[in-house]
Amino acid sequence: MILNVLALSLMLSSSLAAQEGAAKLEPLDAIYEAAVAKKDDAAIESAFKARRFEVINLVDGYLEGWLSNVEGSAKEKAADPQVLMDRALDAAARGDKALGGDGYTRYAKAWKNWTPEQQKQFRKGQEEYQAGRGLQKEKKLADAKARYEASLALAAPLGDLWGEAQAHQSLGDLAFGEEKFDVAIEHHKKGKAIFGSIRHQGAFRSYRALANAYEKKGDLKAARKELEEMVSVATEAKLPHATIGPVHKDLARVCRALGDEDAAKAHEAKVNG
Q1: Residue 88 and residue 66 in contact, taking contact as beta carbons nearer than 8 Å
Q2: Long-range contacts of residues 257-262, Cβ cutoff 8 Å, at least 24 apart
Q3: What is the pLDDT of residues 27-55, one digit of tens each?
Q4: Secondary structure (H, E, C), the chain
Q5: Sequence-distant (≥ 6) Cβ neighbours of residue 5 within 8 angstroms
Q6: I need a labelling partner for 140 at 20 to 30 A (CA). Which of 8, 78, 88, 269 fits?
Q7: How far apart are CA 61 and CA 237, in angstroms?
């Protein structure tokens, strides 16, 4: 049986934290700001390429700091909130240049262009999502679904890519629980694509969920494809083998079920590194 989606999410978070702790990495915002002060573009590009799945957290941190200052709710007051927005836009542009695509820039510019009413809409979307999570924990699944749908309806028109993706994922999980696998696949495809566009580690959750759903449908070729892509992206993200190994184990089983014994053995050889 393919690993549980929530278990995978927790495993990814803990393994990334352990990886960073072991390496004692300097915070990316400190590296970025020091390099900006020195006008060292090469250092920024190098850091972004090496830590590509952290760039969205850097950009989002500046955006959240900017908005909370604009709203007056910030614990740490900025002398000039516009500086935070400028950093977000600059980091986003540099991230897109270093890593390709335009996801970071689209995300940051969306925040910049929100009206005060749209800012409130964004916060309402966050509230709806958190309410959905609470209701899901209480097993009030119909109510949770309504809240996630409300969150998605609020996030999507704003260009809130993060909010949009996480709402799709939660709706996909609920659909999977109801054995509505086609619906689950539809939501997790969107979650994977959106999170993938901003290189958010949440994309791994959707890779796993899609593999689960395809296997439940009996489409082992599609499940294999998702797992193979997950290995590729996880390797690119330099996740520890403790995270990638279980995916090879699942691939070995799926490949064997498909009659590809050579591939099965190759994946088995990689389970333990």
Answers
A1: yes
A2: 257/220, 258/220, 258/221, 258/224
A3: 999 999 999 999 999 999 999 999 999 99
A4: CCCCHHHHHHHHHHHHHHHHHHHCCCCHHHHHHHHHHHCCHHHHHHHHHHCHHHHHHHHHHHHHHHHHHHHCCCCCCCCCHHHHHHHHHHHHHHHHHHHCCCHHHHHHHHHHCCCHHHHHHHHHHHHHHHHHHHHHHCCCHHHHHHHHHHHHHHHHHHCCHHHHHHHHHHHHHHHHHCCCHHHHHHHHHHHHHHHHHCCCCCHHHHHHHHHHHHHHHCCHHHHHHHHHHHHHHHHHCCCCHHHHHHHHHHHHHHHHHCCCHHHHHHHHCCCCC
A5: 173, 176, 205, 208, 209, 212
A6: 8
A7: 20
**Domains (range + CATH), the chain:** 5-113+160-268 (1.25.40.10)
Amino acid at 30: A
Whole-model pTM: value is: 0.89
